[in-house]
Amino acid sequence: MEKIDYKEFEKRLLEMKEELESNIARLKDEIDAIGSEDEIDDLEDLASLESDNMHHTAILKQQQHELDEVIHALSKIKTGNYGICEKSGDEIPLERLRAMPHARYCIKHAQSDQE
Fold first, then answer.
1. Widest pairwise Cα distance in the chain
2. Cα–Cα–Cα angle for 98, 67, 55, rounded to 5 degrees
3. How does pLDDT run across 63-77, given as a tens digit for each residue?
4. What is the pLDDT of residues 6-19, one digit of tens each?
C-alpha cells in the first residue's frame, strides 16, 4: 500500500476547514438577515422566507457536521491515527482518503454503518 503523505492531507484538511468556516459564517449571516424581516404582511412572502430559512438551516447543519469531521481528521493526524478505519483498525485506502480526506472508515465499514 502507498504511504500516506500526512502533510498533503493536513494541508487539504486545513483548506477544507477554512472554507467550511467561511461558508458557515455566511450562512449564519443569511439566516440572521432572513429572521430580521419584521414587516411582512403577505403570507406568501412569509412562507417563502420560512422556506428559505429552513433550507439555509439544513445546509448550515450539514456544513457544521462536515467541519466537525474535518476537525476530527486533523486531530487524528496529530495523534498518528489518520488513515486508520475506526471500526476495523485497517488502513483506509489512499484513493478513499483522496476522495474524502475526513473519512473515518474504510468503504466496507462506511457502508455497513449506513444500514
1. 63
2. 110
3. 999 999 999 999 999
4. 999 999 999 999 99
Name the phi and psi angles at 91, rounded to 5: -70, 140
The pTM of this model reads 0.82
* Cα 81 off chain centre by: 19
Query: 89's torsion region: left (phi>0), alpha (psi -120 to 50) or beta?
Result: left
Residues 6+ apart with CB under 8 A from 14: 74
Cell numbers for 38, please give them: 419584521
For residues 88 and 93, what is the distance between their CA atoms, to the nearest angstrom?
13
As a whole number of angstroms, the distance between CA 9 and CA 1 comes to: 16
